[in-house]
Specification:
The complex is a heterodimer of chains A (305) and B (407). Chain A is of the alpha+beta class and 305 residues long. Chain A has helices at 10-31, 105-116, 183-194, 259-267, and strands spanning 2-7, 50-54, 58-63, 73-79, 86-90, 99-103, 120-127, 131-139, 147-157, 176-179, 199-204, 210-215, 220-225, 253-258, 275-281, 285-292, 295-302. A 10-stranded antiparallel beta sheet of chain B has the order 10-6-2-3-4-22-21-20-12-18. Chain B has a 5-stranded antiparallel beta sheet with strand order 5-1-7-8-9. In chain B, strands 17-14-13-19 form a 4-stranded antiparallel beta sheet. The chains are: A alpha+beta (305), B alpha+beta (407). Chain A: Belongs to the HUS1 family.
């Protein structure tokens, strides 16, 4: 099992920076789980770690969502050719050209923070005191000799029997699919709503309308977004599952979500995506899909019981 | 003591207090003729910080406390928790404080800090102090084999790769490169409930030509606490000052020093000794915790300063200038604080070191260079009992390059 990758192009490094910012949001999403409420859950290590899946063509960064305890899932996909000038990998066996690694998001995002200011980056799977993903970045300096920063991020190789959890997640059969309003606007709305209530209702219909609603004993607040547009037929995902033709365009599909999860998702989006849409499965899950140039991200926020 | 600090300098004072708060829980105030010294030491005595503000830093600086004419300047100790909140929000201080008055009131045992803010608002804080001897560390940077000098920005860029919770880091220096890496205790990581926790290992290396000044006398590998260093680095960055690093072999303290026209800041950190570098326990401190009344124990410091032949020593004006028996943190490696004006370097005749008083002639020589020194000595009755850490012959070798590696 081997992996070596090298990024030397500045533009590619900038794209990779986007990736690292997304990771920061992943760290946020994973940390504040309301159902944990102070009790450290060591039930499953997977809720506290991220999975890096490497194939000859793609890099996947996956946060497995444990829907049972209200966790959020995230799926991030990069086309390796758009980033790496050099990319060599050998899978676990000669037939299976895939590697699955479990990595703790905090050190990984710290390593990537260094990458943000680098001139060139090398990624390698190595074995030091344990299996590590070594990130070696060369930082620009005024002199001819660059500074080299090396981070050895400890990783765990995930055995093949657990791999099915990290295969490409199909898009659920959603009821409504709508483009999202500008994320900054959404964020400022959600930030203010958070002060009033813990739960928010997201609803949208096929007419391009979306509402964000909160309700308390004293007050109810609704923000209406109009003319957002609906993706034609299906959406960016390759799976089919488009909305049924007979659905009334005025009828809203709604999901009640934990407002903090939505807020954390919005906090991590510092860069405006080229495409952002939202699939809603009525009273089930909100599936958010973002496309940042070469990086595609999917978030699943489950409905609150 | 009575001083007035102008608007722009209040922020510098605040930053100095922030830096010292990272080191210890108590703040020593030592008003001297040559300036106001703010010092702190951590409980393990493995980190020491000193910020000396010369009278030029202040709009007005006087050692006398208001009404009491001719009274001696009180040296005192404050609880850091009382002082830090006053300077916590530096941006709002910068915006609203026009000037700051600091004075020591012996009648009420309070240090009075008054902020004169915009719109005629005056905030007065009375902080209880404990009278105390001045705190001093003894360190001679000229004995250090390796000296580095770099803009604060460079050092800040070096430590930014390490997480905020990183306790210790190891700095390695060879003629080819300078490396900084996080300190591995035991090498196997820490055992937790879920199995051995694997720590992330970070290493960064720089070429010597990135430093403004790079002098290497011996290849060394030192491990010290990063947390205590961050304070002075942030201070240096805010003033855009270069930082000088004096280091030697593992086990000897490392000194980080910053200076400009009106102030001088120093942080001394103990380093892990070689034999302990594989231990799981706390790194043993090589700054021995010795807060003792120095008067009656001249032997220790003097013995340390007895070096072979013609070592050049600088006069430790801070030590001699203390009024009552000042507690001395003595280190096994003959350490003294680096001097403000480093070009003054007096050569030492080791035989003279045995005397515990300085000869009148040398005192006079001393006074030409360090005014504060001689006047303090005249005033203080116990000057004669103070251990002399440097004896100087009349023929000082003023041409000595202060930065040359010691013999």
């Amino acid at each position: 099992m081997k992996f070596r990758g090298k990024i030397t192009d500045i533009a590619c490094l900038n794209h990779f920076t986007t990736f690292s910012r997304i990771l920061k949001s992943a760290v946020c999403l994973n940390e504040a789980d309301p159902l944990c409420s102070g009790v450290v859950t060591t039930i499953s290590k997977l809720t506290k770690t991220c999975v890096l899946r490497l194939t000859p063509d793609h890099l996947f960064f996956i946060l497995p969502g444990k829907v049972t305890n209200g966790g959020v899932g995230m799926w991030c996909q990069l086309l390796q050719a758009n980033f790496f000038q050099e990319y060599q990998m050998e899978g676990v066996t000669s037939e299976v050209q895939e590697i699955c690694l479990e990595v703790s998001p905090e050190p990984w995002s710290r390593a990537l923070k260094t990458v943000q200011s680098a001139k060139s980056v090398k990624l390698k799977l190595t074995r030091k005191h344990c299996a590590c993903l070594t990130v070696a970045a060369e930082l620009p300096t005024l002199s001819s000799v660059g500074r080299v920063v090396t981070h050895d991020v400890p990783v765990d190789v995930i055995p093949r029997r657990l791999w099915q959890e990290f295969q490409e997640v199909g898009v659920p059969d959603f009821d409504v699919s709508v483009y999202l309003p500008p994320l900054k606007t959404m964020k400022s709305v959600v930030d203010r709503m958070k002060n009033l209530s813990n739960f928010l209702v997201m609803e949208a219909n096929l007419n391009g309308d979306m509402n964000l609603k909160i309700q308390t004993d004293l007050v109810s607040v609704t923000t209406h977004f109009k003319d957002l547009g609906n993706p034609a037929g299906g959406d960016v995902s390759s799976q089919d599952g488009g909305p049924s033709q007979s659905r009334d365009p005025e009828v809203m599909a709604e999901v009640t979500v934990d407002i903090r999860k939505l807020q954390q998702f919005l906090m991590g989006q510092q860069v405006n995506p080229s495409k952002a849409l939202c699939n809603i499965v009525h009273q089930n899950v909100v599936h958010l899909v973002l496309l940042h140039e070469d990086v595609s991200l999917q978030y699943f926020i489950p409905a609150v019981a | 003591m009575n001083c007035v600090i102008e608007r722009n300098s209040v922020k510098a004072l605040g930053k100095a207090i922030h830096a010292l708060s990272r080191i210890g829980n108590e703040l020593w105030l030592d008003p001297m003729v040559k300036g106001l010294a703010l010092r702190s030491v951590n409980s393990a005595h493995s980190a020491y910080g000193c910020f000396l503000f010369s009278p030029m830093f202040f709009k007005h600086y006087s050692l006398e406390s208001g009404s009491k004419q001719g009274s001696k300047a009180i040296k005192c100790k404050l609880v850091m928790k009382s002082v830090l909140p006053l300077f916590r929000c530096l941006t709002s201080i910068e915006r609203s404080v026009e000037r700051c008055h600091m004075s020591v009131s012996t009648a009420t045992d309070r240090v009075i800090i008054q902020f004169f803010c915009r719109h005629g608002i005056i905030k007065t804080h009375n902080i209880h102090f404990q009278e105390s001897e001045a705190l001093q560390a003894v360190f001679d940077s000229h004995l250090c084999a390796n000296v580095l000098k770099a803009p604060a920005r460079l050092l800040a860029d070096m430590v930014v790769h390490f997480p905020l919770f990183q306790e210790e880091i190891t700095l390695s220096i060879t003629p080819m490169k300078v490396t900084l890496r996080n300190y591995q205790q035991g090498g196997k990581g820490v055992l937790t409930l879920s199995g051995p926790m694997k720590t992330m290992y970070t290493e960064m290396s720089l070429h010597p030509n990135e430093f403004d000044y790079f002098q290497i006398g011996l290849d060394s590998d030192i491990t010290f606490c990063l947390k205590e260093l961050r304070g002075i680095l942030s201070f240096a960055e805010s003033r855009s000052l270069p930082v000088s690093v004096y280091l030697d072999a593992a086990g000897k303290p490392v000194c980080f020093s910053v200076e400009d026209m009106v102030l001088e800041a120093t942080v001394l950190l103990a380093t892990v000794t070689d034999s302990d570098s594989r231990d799981h326990s706390q790194p043993t401190e090589s700054l021995t915790p010795k807060i003792s009344r120095c008067i009656s124990s001249p032997a220790q410091p003097v013995a340390m300063s007895q070096g072979p032949g013609s070592r050049s020593y600088t006069v430790p004006d801070e030590l001699i200038a203390s009024s009552q028996g000042s507690p001395v943190i003595s280190c096994p490696g003959a350490m003294r604080l680096p001097q403000i004006r480093e070009q003054t370097c007096l050569s030492v005749d080791s035989q003279e070191c045995t005397s515990s008083t300085s000869s009148p002639a040398s005192t006079k020589v001393c006074s030409l260079l360090f005014n504060a020194l001689s006047s303090q000595q005249d005033q203080d009755g116990c000057a004669a009992q103070l251990p002399v850490l440097a004896c100087y012959s009349d023929e000082e070798n003023a041409d000595d390059n202060p930065r040359s590696p010691s013999q």
